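Is flavin-adenine dinucleotide placement plausible here? Inputs below.
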Amino acid sequence: MNRTVQQQQLNEDLTWDIAIIGGGATGLGAAVDAASRGFKTILLEKYDFASGTSSRSTKLVHGGVRYLQQGNIKLVMEALKERGLLLQNAPHLVHNQAFLLPSYKWWETPFYGLGLKIYDWMAGKLGLGASRFLSKEETLKQAPTLNPEELRGAILYHDGQFDDARLAIDLAKTASAHGAVLLNYFPVTALLKNDGKLEGLVAVDEQTKKQYNIKARAIINATGVFSDDVMNMDDPGHESMISPSQGIHLVVDKEFLPGNAAILIPKTDDGRVLFAVPWHNKVVLGTTDTPVDHATTEPVPKEEEIEFILKHSALYLSRDPQRSDIKSMFAGLRPLVKGKTQKTAALSRDHLIITSDSGLITITGGKWTTYRKMAEDVINIAIKENSLEEKKCITGTLMISGHDQLQIDPMSVSEKDIAYCVANEMCMTVEDYLSRRTRHLLLDARSAIAAAPQVAAVMAGLLAKDSNWITHQLEAFDRIAKQHLPS
Ligand SMILES: Cc1cc2nc3c(=O)[nH]c(=O)nc-3n(C[C@H](O)[C@H](O)[C@H](O)COP(=O)(O)OP(=O)(O)OC[C@H]3O[C@@H](n4cnc5c(N)ncnc54)[C@H](O)[C@@H]3O)c2cc1C
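Reply from A.M.:
I modeled the complex. Tokens:
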């Protein structure tokens, strides 16, 4: 998947079957689905693939124990099925992760134990292993740094864990392998209409500043927390639909949670969920659920969110993580669909698909785990609403690119890997490489800042860029990287 090759396939005379706006989990999933059914598909992403929410998740492929607690059976059943399919179709990026749900009160073991037995049962033949009770001794053997005071034991259960941005890149490669054209740094700036009906879109190649009119029979808005902006291009009077909610994560050294098990605290003393998940030899602590007024491209963790995670992690870990222990932190915005209540923890995690009078199909909500089902649903709707030829969805058993290849080390700064990502993964900036082709910035921001000059120099050589480009890239990266560290 080479950007120049992708770009050369843009042809303003062509009418695409399906054009997708947005290259996060939702848009990329839709591109894989559409292209693998044989539709002429194009996807345009304003910045880099997965540069929005889709690279900033908790990295769980899960049914959502929490949603079970809320009684959302349909959502959990669907997500558990998708969890199983993703593990089969992307075994290089998703693995079975053991979780401990520790109990400190007498009622927690039977209460959560029963819930998790139901969770096992709901997963059916796609289950990842039966949950079981652990004694206090067994619990501490699996998680020696868990606070032992008043600990009664734990329930061990299984969910999936993955690398979100890598999956996004591999989905893009899968779509491309099936004939889709995908372009990053290619914002959609307007929609084209004829007689009140959509017939295309206007997009700009940020590399050349050239503007394109792209015609398509179906147009899908998959812009996550920015869905309202694209809906405004279609209908300036449209009522806002998205209520963004920020979630942050802190990344600390593995010594805070040695061993392989992750920890789930289903209800902190102020009623929130807390995860501590091993990830690429570090530990991710999170998350929060903070309503925000406006969506921004680079959301920054708020002081009170950092404090919340540090304080509550300290209650459950024998060594209290301090600010100075934070290797990196990252914030993402959930594209929650507005409900009657403004409390974001209660808004729908389910996905929603709406078609406007002009034919714009907007898909939003959902979660990474269910991206495949969301894609299947939205392409079915695109077929129906635009009289496209009926073709069956094949993604249930479609292997995702990269499953038969060696994986790039998540902290790599090797020339070979940089060259590979530039030539084959549309890696255009220093941040693309350090944040999403590898995960260096999310795992250790200081180390990523130190590595940036070397990455910039290698990329400049590969992309035939001058020293101004290097200076500009390093300044831009520095600005973003600093937001990954507490002040
Ligand atoms: C804190 C947090 C933790 C989460 N953890 C999990 C988890 O563990 N497991 C799980 O399953 N789910 C999780 N989720 C949910 C999951 O990450 C999201 O549901 C998913 O990433 C949303 O993907 P998306 O494609 O809809 O949005 P995005 O990833 O935001 O993608 C939208 C894209 O549209 C692009 N765009 C915007 N405007 C334009 C335009 N005009 N032209 C072209 N492109 C445009 C943006 O640049 C962006 O890349 C989490 C979410 C958050 C916030």
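Short version: The longest strand covers residues 210-221.
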